[in-house]
Amino acid sequence: MYIDSHCHINFPELAVRMPEIMAKMVENGVTHALCVSVDLPDFPQVLALAETYPHIYASVGVHPDYEDTEEPSAEQLVALSQHQKIIAIGETGLDYFRLKGDLEWQRERFRQHIRASRLSRKPLIIHTRAASEDTIRIMQEEGAGTEQGGVAGVMHCFTESLEVAEAAIAMGFYISFSGILTFKSARDLQAVARALPLERILIETDSPYLAPAPHRGKMNEPGFVRHVGEFLADLKGIPLKQVQEVTSANFFKLFNLAH
User: Fold this and answer.
1) Contact of 58 with 35, CB cutoff 8 Å
2) Residue 127 and residue 125: Cα distance in Å, rounded?
């Protein structure tokens, strides 16, 4: 079996195809998926999906790319996270690739999410792009992860260096690989995945974006996470069943769910 640890099936282009999306998950052996929140106005849609489908979970958070949206407080995030199907805080983090200028608001938003994770005892889903140094620094300052009494989390859609991955793992975090891993141009990322222990790895689609080979260029969906798992098994030279079992067990362990 496979688990899509990060998707956005509430986005309109996927939401209109929900019966087909669910059928393709079954067809490809994808047993569970985590639908990740990107802003508060759309959070009710994310929660509604989790309430409708037993095998879909949800998070609550505001993505760092969303500049003109309601700014969450740690207390607000904690209150929204109390629902039993909300298993994580995020996605949160820093993105210096898409946005420029004074991004202190982005760093403060990130801090609020880390504080919410500590208060709620729910894992963080972290997005970082062109901002790894500040991401790790703020994680350390705010006590993200297990080192300073926080809880674990995941660096989602990971594209950074091995050093960044190891720094996050040292704080109790997992590293999640998306369809980017299957791209021919992703040699450096493939080397990172090859070097990391499978026991600290998750797989994801980040759908509707970043469809893996052989579907690159098409709309992504949770059923395609199978291709990420297959590529990871070939990359590491290990049985596919091992990748299925260990990445799924990692998901249940991180998010404190019954297997």
Assistant:
1) yes
2) 7
Quick one: which of 209, 216, 249 has its CA closest to 231? 216
| Contact between residue 59 and residue 88 where contact means Cβ atoms under 8 Å apart | yes
Lookup result for tokens 């190891």: 166
How far apart (Å, rounded) are the C-alpha atoms in residues 22 and 79? 29
- Give the C-alpha separation, 235 to 116, whole Å: 36
Cα torsion at 94, 65, 54, 123 (round to 10°)? 20
The continuous run of DSSP H or E covering 110 comes out as: helix 104-120
Q: What is the pTM of this model?
A: 0.97
CA distance 124 to 145: 8
Rounded Cα distance, 117 and 139, in Å: 11
Q: In this structure, how many other beta carbons lie within 10 angstroms of the beta carbon of residue 108? A: 11
32 forms beta bridges with 3
Looking at residue 90, the DSSP 8-state letter turns out to be E
Domains and CATH numbers, the chain: 2-254 (3.20.20.140)
Reported as a single tens digit per residue, the pLDDT across 148-176 is 889 999 999 999 999 999 999 999 999 99
User: Per the structure block, which two tokens stand in for 164?
Assistant: 């960044």
